[in-house]
Amino acid sequence: MLNNKKGSAAIILIILAILVIGCGVYYYSNYLNWKTYTNAEYGFEFKYPNKFTLEDYNSDEVGKVIGKEIISPNPSLTKIYVSVFKNYEIIKNISDNNISCELKADNVSFGNNMKAREYACGDAGTTGKVYLISLPQKVGLYVVVTSDSPEATADKQFTELPIVIVEKILSSFKFTSIDIQTGIADLKTYTKPAPAGFEVKYPSDFKVTSNNGIDLNDAGTEKSGPQVIFTYPESYTKGTNLVEAKITVETNKANDTKNCRIDSVRRRSETPLKILPSITANGVTFTGGSNGGAAAGQLYESVIYTASNATTCYVISLDTHSGNIQNYDPPVKAFDSEKVMSVFKQVLSTFKIGS
Q1: DSSP secondary structure letter of residue 43
Q2: How far is CA 165 from the centre of its chain?
Q3: Which domains occur in the chain, in start order?
Q4: Which among 39, 85, 201, 254 is least buried, having the fewest CB atoms inside 10 angstroms?
Q5: Phi, psi (deg, nearest 5) at residue 144
């Protein structure tokens, strides 16, 4: 009888252990009650346990635009840092040349359908792993997991964070609904039917207008083809010297060389046209050029790309109008020309010629 009781007790303990482990596996595999951090600007997200906190982590690392630390509610020897660097190639080169780190893998699976460079690092009683992921817009996502040795802290209450938690946090990283091709969140699609059909994606906060063509000279003897115009919102101009920025898609007949050749397409001034490198998007190769001019304290600049098929020539341009920043009272800041140009190139990369 005693043996039976011991056997029954053992079975009960085994069952309880299985239930506890099973509940733990379910909790961590399903992220029950976990929090989610989402960054719409750079297009990624990750999860962390409900009782953990996410705090800003500041450092003077070159090019870092975001720094976060995932903090355990209990004293922990394990630290998890998440950073975003503006230029992937720069932080890659810095990591490759860090004498405290060794590149372990160049294209390891990370999170949910991400690929990363994995480094093993160690210095002054601290060891860790570093994962570098390329985000849209050539931005670098930098995830660091470090572990201090027990001797590194005098407080013996510090313990290692359970590996199951660390692994589940890392496995939760993924790209968000951002368009991976363009790096722009909240895209809409504009479709123009044949003839002269095309499709292009654009940010949802842009204003869309169209016309049947505009006069290219004061006499009205030259006219452009039909245009669809995507105007940048006030968030790009407010508090800056940017007056207006817009992306225009113009369609002309393929034999209309005056409006289609990059060296003769409409200009804002007589200043020499600067030829830009060609861009290929969705099987379409665009030839490009830029031009600009100034008058009465105002600066007008255009970046123009053209491409053709058998029947239609497509002209896609970015036009910006800005004021001399010295003329503003109260003062304003210079507009972010790199951001404006980046959005234009990303929109251009989605362009598809219709059938």
Answers
A1: T
A2: 27
A3: 32-175 (3.40.1000.10), 187-353 (2.60.120.1690)
A4: 254
A5: -120, 130
